[in-house]
Design goal:
With about 210 residues, the protein is an alpha/beta fold. It has six helices and nine strands; from the N terminus they run H-E-E-E-H-E-H-E-H-E-E-E-H-E-H. Strands 3-9-8-4-5 form a five-stranded parallel β-sheet, sandwiched between helices. A two-stranded antiparallel ribbon has the order 1-2. The longest helix is centred in the first third of the chain and has 13 residues, at about 1-15.
Length: about 210
């Protein structure tokens, strides 16, 4: 913290005409904010406008013990696309515009969600889908598959009308969304209909994007 303040003060001395506190913080040069829906109500995604804002302390720890907090690969499985913040925002915008074929899913447990989640998302904790590690009931998994638009026909699943799912958790060291994705793949969910926001909440908060608390 002291090093940050020192560097910031040095910067302001070198560039006295630069008023950092009044510099706008857009999402991209052309995009200031995005209007979405969260649980049916309007919400605006934007970045924190305080140029001196520091990230959430919950995500400043760098050395959580592994296991379980181990780094995840960039690609979880062939065909499952890894995406970033702009893609997540674009999917949320599409939902707001009426696209019902998309769901953005927070795979974390409720205690983490209570601290803040990405607006416009729904919470499906990893232990409600993972039968191998989380001990989820297979019947519960089938209920979720049906909610996602899959249809069971004589013991086989038809995913032709299944939704595109975007899943995330706490960050590159978090295994909760990877477990959900691997479970869905095991049931036959088409890889192109699964998207993984690998950076998760840590990346989202690092760049100052706002969150919502239940």
């Amino acid at each position: 913290m002291k090093r940050f303040v020192f560097i910031l003060n040095l910067f302001l001395i070198m560039f006295p005409g630069y008023n950092c506190a009044e510099s706008p913080v857009k999402i991209t040069p052309q995009l200031e904010k995005v209007d979405i829906l969260h649980q049916g109500k309007p919400f605006t995604i934007m970045r924190n406008q305080d140029n001196f804002n520091l990230m959430n302390p919950d995500f400043t720890l760098t050395s959580r013990p592994c296991p379980p907090f181990c780094l995840q690969p960039m690609t979880l499985s062939t065909g499952v696309e890894t995406i970033g913040e702009l893609e997540v925002i674009d999917y949320l915008k599409k939902i707001k515009e009426g696209d019902q074929s998309i769901l953005v899913i927070d795979s974390r447990t409720p205690d983490w969600v209570q601290k803040g989640t990405i607006p416009g998302t729904i919470n499906i904790p990893w232990d409600q889908l993972s039968t191998s590690v989380g001990g989820a009931d297979p019947l519960t998994v089938k209920e979720y598959l049906a909610k996602f638009g899959a249809q069971e026909l004589e013991g086989l699943w038809d995913f032709s009308q299944a939704k595109t799912l975007i899943l995330f958790c706490n960050g590159v060291w978090c295994g909760q969304s990877p477990l959900n994705i691997k479970t869905l793949l095991k049931y036959g969910y088409p890889p192109p209909k699964l998207k993984w926001y690998r950076g998760g909440m840590q990346a989202w908060e690092t760049v100052g994007l706002n969150v919502i608390k239940p």
